[in-house]
Structures are given as structure tokens and as C-alpha cells.
Design brief:
It comes from Xylocopilactobacillus apis. The chain is α/β, with parallel strands linked by helices. It has 9 helices and 17 strands. Helix 2 crosses helix 3 and helix 6 packs parallel to helix 8.
Length: 312
């Protein structure tokens, strides 16, 4: 039985329809793919993004803000979306397991991620959250929210960005290990986990969002996973992506990818954190990582799709 951490991108949860019904349907389709790992005999640990959801929830909170019903801060919104998305995944996976006559418990764990209070990311917001805005909408957004920072995101429009500190420790990782040892499928560290800093014995939430790929890599290292699989909207890693000479990479060493990372060949906020997270897992453990498309899960399990990254 292989212990596999699977990190899911936003496409696994949210499309153009932000309603709960539409997101639950997207999660159901995702669960249909993920159950293939369990059918294959693997021990699955699931983590997921929450950028669109936490951004949308924050907007809802701000639009209904009042003295008697004050808006919740970003860290609490992160916890709220961990709970809602975890509920959707528990529900969908339980249905898939029952339909496949597999008896396996699933549990969602609200997860806190310890970060460095002095991480330079707090002074340089970079993590996109919430919906996309057109160039015309940006002026009004800035008038309404002068403290927001908005950037163009991969040619898809403008999004708000917030600090994204690097994860140091997954606070609940020992509990996650026990859940895994019991053969239970945990859904953990949604959206990278709730960012907290340690003051003595107290954990204090911070207004930030942690990159879920870095968090997934950290979880995979802490639970001693045999493999880290990052599922996204593209089939794998490409050199010169989007250019006439783009080249899909099927098998590559971590050291080769380091060279391409240093040459700034991957898009920040898109493929770059996925490659960095995968390479870090391989460097730290010597175990392989895979980056591939959600719809290719069956082929990824067989080893015929996705980009496989190895130590040698």
C-alpha cells in the first residue's frame, strides 16, 4: 500500500458557477477520479486549494459587515472554507466508496499551518484570491477598497493578492499521521491551512493565504508519504509553455528542474509553485512526485500520464 498525498487545484472545486450546488457537483466528479487511488490499494491523503472560495466568502463578509454582524477576518474565512469544502469532499467520497462497495472512513481536519511572523511575504502580497476582474472593474474596486492590491493573473483578468508566507510546520500533522495509520482517508490543510504564528503556547491567526502546493509538500514530508501528486488543469510540466516550441516533460530529475526554476521559465502563481513544491518533496525525501491533470488520474496511477519527478 503506497501512502500518497494528492493536492487538488481550484479546478477540482470551482468552475464559472460559484453556487454551492455547482461546487458540490464539481467535487463529486473529482471524488469519482480520486476513488481510483483507493481502488488501487493506496492510502490517500487529500489536500486542496480554496483561493476562489475564501476570496468570495471574504467579499460576502465585507458586503454584510455591520456593528451587530461584523465581518470575519481572512484567517477565519479560511477556516470556514476548509469546513465547507471538507464537508463536500467527505460527502462525495463516501458516496463513491459506497457505490464501489469499499468500506473506508473519510474525515476532514481543520488544519493550522505555522508560519514565520517575519516572513518577507507579509510585506509583499502575491497570492491571488477571489474572483477575476476586468480592467474596467479594477478602478471601482480600488475606489471601494483602497487597501487592496490587485494584479493581472496569467492572462485571465485581475485578482486581489494577499500575503503568502511559507509553511514551517503543519500543526496537526501528528494527528494526521494517526488517522493515516488507522487507514482513514483524511482531507487536510485546505487552502494550505490556516496561517498562524506561535507566541509562547498560543497560535495566532494571520491575514494571509498559504500556497496549497507548498503546504501539500510539507504534509507529504511530515507523514512520510511515498509519493506527492499535484493535480491541476494541464497534463504536466512544459518547457516554453504557450510558445511554438513548447515541450511536454514526461520524466525529469529534480536537479534538472532546479536549472529551469533558476532560469525563471515557469509562471509565478501558476506552474512555478507546483514545480517548486514537487522538487522540494523529492529533494527532502528521495521519493517521486507527479504533476498532472485531474482527468488523467487513472493513467497517472499506471504511470503513463503526467510529469514524473525523481531524485535521479
Amino acid at each position: 500500500m503506497a501512502k500518497i498525498v494528492v493536492a487538488l487545484g481550484g479546478n477540482a472545486i470551482l468552475s464559472s458557477d460559484a453556487s454551492a450546488k455547482a461546487q458540490m457537483e464539481a467535487v463529486r466528479k473529482t471524488a469519482h477520479e480520486l476513488v481510483n487511488f483507493i481502488k488501487n490499494g493506496d492510502q490517500l491523503i487529500i489536500t486542496h486549494g480554496n483561493g476562489p472560495q475564501v476570496g468570495n466568502l471574504l467579499l460576502q463578509q465585507m458586503n454584510s459587515d455591520s456593528k451587530n454582524n461584523p465581518a470575519m477576518p481572512l484567517d477565519t474565512c479560511g477556516a470556514m472554507t476548509q469546513g465547507s469544502i471538507g464537508y463536500w469532499f467527505e460527502n462525495a467520497l463516501n458516496t463513491e466508496l459506497a457505490e464501489n462497495k469499499i468500506k473506508r472512513d473519510v474525515i476532514s481536519i481543520v488544519t493550522q499551518t505555522i508560519v514565520d511572523e517575519n516572513d518577507p511575504a507579509f510585506k509583499k502580497p502575491s497570492k491571488p484570491i477571489g474572483p477575476f476582474y476586468t480592467e474596467e472593474e479594477v478602478k471601482k474596486i480600488k475606489d471601494d477598497h483602497p487597501d487592496w492590491q490587485l494584479v493581472e493573473d496569467s492572462g485571465r483578468g485581475y485578482r486581489r493578492v494577499v500575503p503568502s508566507p511559507k509553511p514551517l510546520v503543519i500543526n496537526e500533522y501528528e494527528a494526521i499521521q494517526k488517522v493515516v495509520e488507522a487507514g482513514i482517508v483524511p482531507i487536510v490543510s485546505g487552502g494550505g491551512g490556516i496561517p498562524v504564528v506561535k507566541h509562547g503556547d498560543q497560535l495566532i491567526g494571520k491575514e494571509a493565504v498559504i500556497d496549497k502546493d507548498f503546504s501539500a509538500s510539507k504534509i507529504a514530508q511530515l507523514v512520510k508519504a511515498d509519493e506527492l501528486i499535484i493535480l491541476t488543469s494541464v497534463g504536466g510540466v512544459f518547457y516554453n509553455f504557450g510558445k511554438p516550441d513548447q515541450k511536454e516533460v514526461k520524466n525529469v530529475t529534480a536537479s534538472e528542474l532546479h536549472t529551469h526554476i533558476d532560469a525563471h521559465e515557469f509562471a509565478a502563481g501558476s506552474m512555478l509553485p507546483k514545480v517548486q513544491a514537487a522538487v522540494d518533496f523529492v529533494d527532502q525525501t528521495g521519493n517521486p512526485a507527479v504533476i498532472g491533470a485531474l482527468e488523467d488520474v487513472s493513467e497517472i496511477i499506471k504511470g503513463t500520464e503526467g510529469t514524473k519527478i525523481t531524485a535521479k
